[in-house]
Amino acid sequence: MAKEGVLAVTTNNDTQFRTAPRIKDCVHAVCDSIGDQLKTPRSRRIEMKWLTSKRQVKILYAVAALITTCGAAMAASDSEQFQRFSDPNQWGAPAGNLNQTRYSSLKDINTGNVKELQMTWSQSSGTLRGHEGQPLVIENVAGKPMMFMESGWPNIVQALDLSDPDHPLQVWHYTKTSGRDESAVPRACCDTVNRGPSYAEGKLVFGTLDGYVIALDATTGKEIWVVKHAHPDKGETITPAPIIANDKVIIGFGGDEFAARGRVTAYNLADGKKVWECHSTGSDADVCLTKNTNKKHPEYGKAGKDLGISTFPGDEWKRGGGAAWGWYAYDPALHLVYYGTGNPGLWSPQYRCAEPITQENCNSGKFDNKWSMSIFARNVDTGEAEWVYQMTPFDQWDYDGINEVVLVDMNVDGKDRKTLVHFDRNGFAYVLDRTDGTLLRANKYVTTNWAEKVDMKTGRPVKVPEHSPLKAGGNTQACPSAMGGKDQQPVAVDPGDPTNFYVPTNNWCMEDEPQERSHTQQGTVYVFANVYMYPEKPGVTGKFKKFNVVTGKTEWEIPDQYPNWGGALVTAGGLAFYGSLGGDFRAVDRSTGKVLWSRKLGSGIIGNPITYSVKGKQYVSVWSGIGGWIGLPVTAGLDLNDKFGAIGATAMTKAANLSSIPQGGTLYTFRVGGGM
């Protein structure tokens, strides 16, 4: 029998294909072509009893050829990962899977018993400041169930043995000790956070703030390979979790506020050697555009004009931002990796346009600052862009497009679609066909006044000039604030209910006053704007809501006096979990929005909940530790009387009373019937 997780074929009634989606699609195609021999539709079972021995041999040869044909499509890491993702007892990737759904089919903790949820254990990260991200839980690492977690700077990694799941035991920890670059700390625009490791083929892979991508032996914690990926002196720092796809480690970095030029790189999982690298700005070759990019939608922009250069004035593209510091998704059936890019460098828009500096000229399409604020769909093997869609051309608000892209299949306007859903900082929730980039929906999910709507034919927003900052010295009001309707804190969705998303939101507006530019030096603060942020409604600074991305309707919402900067988790137990910056960790009835359970943790929550099961017991874990851009004034000890400090975050801290929230760095774990 073939190795489980790749393909298993026998000549009895129990024949099964156990494959990840891309091989399965390939299998289905070949099975269709030899249907006259098989006498069966595409399915998970191949009935072969009716075949003569001679014909069975022919079929097995056909399947062998199929494996040869499809082998390149399904790498070893994909086979191992997708088998793991199908097991709800594990949390095998930052979002639980590579679709970014943050959904679990576990239901031992449910609406009926969640009130009995108690803390079972906690573990310090060894650091303070912001704790974004989440741990991983892998069922079998050298025969043991293991949890892996990573702190922010200096990026301490811990491995916990969960054999006794109520009393985990640290078996190793790792911190890089040589070649560290302390200058990364002040160059991390929005706190020294990290969004966690990834795992495949016995390797734990992660980034460090000062620019290293590291693969460790998950059993021993020993280094397998180390590469220098980002360079703080150029404004580049690593906060995102890498994605592992098709035997490649794919990762970007942050740094748009320090004049970085964004790029994403793929490294071999086995040895860390570079496979491909693609920029967000620059020539078509640098951006990895081809004649087939945006084939279905040439209105988005095509190769041939070096739009990554020509849509900037002068050499501004060299400092053009577009850093991919958020989340990444992967569809093995389409062989595509998806991610979003950040703002186009400095916040003073007039320097990213050419004379005349008018709303009409700067928003004519000539100065879109491509390919910042865009969603890329790239071939996982080559990096070539299949399609790329820009959400906020000529950004005037810092509406980074890096928020997670979620891959779900849904019916839109009577047609079944493979879709990509993206809740952008700019206040719109986008639904696109992930095969070709077709825009299907763009609905406002928070108060949004900078644009009337998104033109569904062109994909471009219809901007409102009076809410669009432009020239230095002009003060302009806009909603949402630069922190967005939501920032990187991820949504969750049940793939069985793919139109309803559970969304943590920020409900803030701002006044933005662009400033004169004083330098063009990479690695130095490159913002040039005074931003004052304030609650849209006094006393309500965040919400948690159930939002239908097709209808654009909010099904229910929970207002909060504190912002929601942590992610969501949704389960088959009828629950949605989330945490607030006030430190309240909550379980909500998915149907009604009623809070069924809440616990106050030791610090503000900006982490993302996970759930897993060991020895028949379901657990829920979440980081606590205030920070991120929204908590930076607390973690960095900034003067709260400076309302423009941390690019507007100090005013938010003061208005939301976040200075009363203590710092922390603890992972809390709960189960029904637990209790310390």
Query: Count the helices. How many?
Result: 9
- Round the Cα radius of gyration to an integer and report it: 24 Å
Beta-strand percent range: 25-35%
Bulk shape: globular
What structural category arises from helix and sheet content?
A: mainly beta
Structure, explained:
By secondary structure, the chain is mainly β. Helix content is 11%, strand content 31%. It has 9 helices and 38 strands. The strands form 10 sheets. The chain has a 5-stranded mixed sheet with strand order 1-32-33-34-35, with no helix packed on it. The protein has a 4-stranded antiparallel sheet with strand order 2-38-37-36, with no helix packed on it. Helix 1 packs across helix 3 and helix 8 packs across helix 9. The longest helix has 18 residues.
Give a short overview.
By secondary structure, the protein is mainly beta. The chain contains 9 helices and 38 strands. Helix 1 (21-33) crosses helix 3 (53-70).
Secondary structure layout:
Elements: H1 21-33, H2 35-38, H3 53-70, H4 76-85, E1 103-104, E2 117-124, E3 136-141, E4 144-150, E5 157-161, E6 169-174, E7 198-200, E8 203-207, E9 212-217, E10 223-228, E11 243-245, E12 248-251, E13 263-268, E14 274-279, H5 284-287, H6 307-310, E15 328-331, E16 336-340, H7 359-362, E17 374-379, E18 385-390, E19 406-412, E20 415-423, E21 428-433, E22 439-444, E23 451-454, E24 461-463, E25 476-478, E26 492-493, E27 500-506, E28 508-514, E29 529-535, E30 542-548, E31 554-560, E32 569-571, E33 575-579, E34 584-589, E35 595-600, E36 610-614, E37 617-624, H8 628-635, H9 649-655, E38 666-672
Parallel strand pairs: 1-32
Antiparallel strand pairs: 2-38, 3-4, 4-5, 5-6, 7-8, 8-9, 9-10, 11-12, 12-13, 13-14, 15-16, 16-17, 17-18, 19-20, 20-21, 21-22, 23-24, 25-28, 26-27, 27-30, 28-29, 30-31, 32-33, 33-34, 34-35, 36-37, 37-38
